[in-house]
Amino acid sequence: MAVPAPAKAVRALEATAAALVLLWCVHFRGGLALNSPTNKGLIFNVHPVLMLIGLIILGSEAIMSYKTLPWNRGTNKIVHLVLHAVALFLGSFGVYAAFKFHNESGIDNLYSLHSWVGLGAILLYGLQWVSGFATFFFPGASPTLRRAVLPYHARAGLVAYVLALLAAELGFLEKITFLQAGAAGVGRYSSEALMVNFTAIVVSLLGASVVLYVTAPGQQNEHILGYSAVHKP
Amino acid sequence: MAVPAPAKAVRALEATAAALVLLWCVHFRGGLALNSPTNKGLIFNVHPVLMLIGLIILGSEAIMSYKTLPWNRGTNKIVHLVLHAVALFLGSFGVYAAFKFHNESGIDNLYSLHSWVGLGAILLYGLQWVSGFATFFFPGASPTLRRAVLPYHARAGLVAYVLALLAAELGFLEKITFLQAGAAGVGRYSSEALMVNFTAIVVSLLGASVVLYVTAPGQQNEHILGYSAVHKP
């Protein structure tokens, strides 16, 4: 099975976003480190990289998996749940890096809208994974119940994904605003600031592409989220 | 026709969001003014109030209109397009207030992610209104073409709406971050900061409720955006 064209577009956006966030953290922000006695900013840099690769990129691939993978439904399901598990693991580690950076730098935790939305996103993501695992994998609900729950599983999953996207957008804005307002003195129209804004635009295009792709009209037999094009006269 | 329960919940969120943003701008930020020789912040305050009441609240009502209004399709359509026109007018005036505040305070324009996303949202909103007007109202396309375009009109409209929501969320974060970092010295856990975050959460709940409501499963005969619940075995 060839990869569908919309999935190819999504993957180009994923690769662009990953390259841009790495360019930002390595070239402009000095690189990544789990421990750093002098430059605590290096610990922070782990956060955007892991959140983007985890919840956003692997999350996107997991969401699209039933439409993009060539195997049977059972195999695709295992890939779907494993991708989401890795996404959650990387996301949790990314959240840990943000707290570690705050704690070692004497910065308050959990006061900003970014942190509230982000924590809500990862909690919902985790709840969604556990309930999906129990319903569709092990121990697994009855076929009737699975069929009834599936549209809610798919829609709740998209809510968690969109919340993660919102957290990412808020995070890009928050970090560059700190860098512009603080001692770093990053210029408002500097190449770094423009690149961070551009990265955020790429991530929002990625998210919009994934949601529109998996809910595309006229595919109601191909995927549980396919829109109906039936028109009430 | 009674107002459906989800629409009642949306209206409660709309009223809460409007009350909170007014409380913020009037009680914490000194009120609203179109001209102010000394306190330019009063000109800024016009911006969040008009954007929220315009693009978000009237936009939400316009999007739900085919499901909430008791009249025939032709009348509902006129209310739908008039609500969106008023939303666009208030939104454009709100954007003007932001530029006026910047220009009179010597602040750069259009450098932030909020401004980029917000400008994209209102441009897409305007394009969507003009193309919808021409296709579905005057001069109006053929019935066949209208039927073909309608799902795209509805989905593009939701994209513009979600972009407006994203701009609003970014705006709340940006403004409170400026107030926390700047001379205003607003505390990170102050009642004002918590209230602004809470307002942003109410707005995101409002947006999620509207999108989930108009795309609800099992209503494919009732609305063009109804999800299909057909399951591929």
What does this entry look like structurally?
Chain A is mainly α and 233 residues long. The first copy, chain A, has one domain (5-209): Four Helix Bundle (Hemerythrin (Met), subunit A) (Up-down Bundle). Chain A is 74% helix and 0% strand. In chain A, helix 1 packs antiparallel against helix 6 (191-214). The longest helix of chain A is centred in the C-terminal third of the chain and has 39 residues, at 143-181. Chain A is globular. Mean pLDDT of chain A is 93; it is low at 226-233. The interface between A and B is large, with 49 and 49 residues. Chains A, B: It is a multi-pass membrane protein. Chains A, B: Residues 9-215 form the Cytochrome b561 domain.
Task: Please write the string of helix (H) and strand (E) elements of chain A.
Answer: HHHHHH
How would a textbook summarize the main sheet of chain A? none
Count of domains of chain A: 1
Number of helices of chain A: 6
Instruction: Average the pLDDT over all residues of chain A and give the rounded result.
Output: 93
What amount of the residues of chain A lies in strands? under 5%
**In angstroms, what separates the terminal alpha carbons of chain A?**
38 Å
Biggest interface between protein chains, with counts per chain? A-B, 49 and 49 residues
Structural class category of chain A: mainly alpha
Low-confidence region ranges of chain A: 226-233
What is the approximate shape of chain A? globular
The CATH architecture designation of chain A is: Up-down Bundle
CATH class of chain A: Mainly Alpha
